[in-house]
Write a structure and sequence with these properties.
The protein is about 75% helix and about 0% strand. The protein has helices at about 10-25, 30-35, 40, 50-55, 60-80, 80-105, 115-130, 135-150, 160-175.
Length: about 180
């Protein structure tokens, strides 16, 4: 009988994300304060590139991201170790938040970026670089989660998914 690990870094991140979502929804203007937005520059909210990874747009958004994080985070953590997983998720996620913000800012848009999907797409980009067998499937999945919700009118930061995927791919060359 195989033993499953409960205290993995992936599970701790999932618990921290759920906790932060509860904090976010309990505080006044929590989504704006913890999301990545213009207040990053205007009010020096320098924590936003990290906090936006933990903030989410709703319970369904949170559940879907944590489901995918559990799948790919557990896989990466087992195969590459906690350190590599942590670097990819946190450094990749923060860089994805910053580049995504730069993208919308350069277009003159004032969106509020929330969610772990950019950091998760970093993991997907990293896996796609090394897993040639599943590369096309992973790429199709990233494209689907990036553009299919737009077809039904859901406001989604598709560019954060693509940016995260590219950052994960690039980090794969250095890690």
């Amino acid at each position: 009988m195989a033993r499953t690990k409960v205290f993995t870094l992936t599970n701790l991140i999932i618990l921290a994300t759920i906790f932060m979502y509860i904090v976010q929804t309990s505080m006044q203007h929590g989504t704006i304060l913890l999301g990545m937005n213009i207040f990053f520059l205007e009010y020096d909210l320098w924590y936003q590139p990290l906090s936006s990874i933990f903030a989410h747009g709703g319970i369904f958004h949170l559940a879907m991201n944590m489901f995918v994080l559990y799948q790919f985070g557990t896989l990466l953590e087992e195969q590459k170790g906690k350190f590599t997983f942590a670097i990819l998720y946190f450094i990749g996620g923060i860089v994805t938040s910053l580049v995504s913000f730069l993208f919308i800012y350069s277009l003159g848009l004032n969106h509020n970026l929330v969610g772990a999907s950019g950091a998760i797409c970093v993991l997907l980009g990293y896996v796609a670089l090394y897993d040639r067998f599943n590369r096309k499937g992973i790429l199709v999945w990233v494209l689907l989660i990036s553009f299919a919700p737009l077809l039904i009118g859901m406001p989604i930061a598709w560019y954060a998914h693509l940016i995260g995927f590219a950052i994960g791919w690039l980090l794969g060359y250095f890690i």
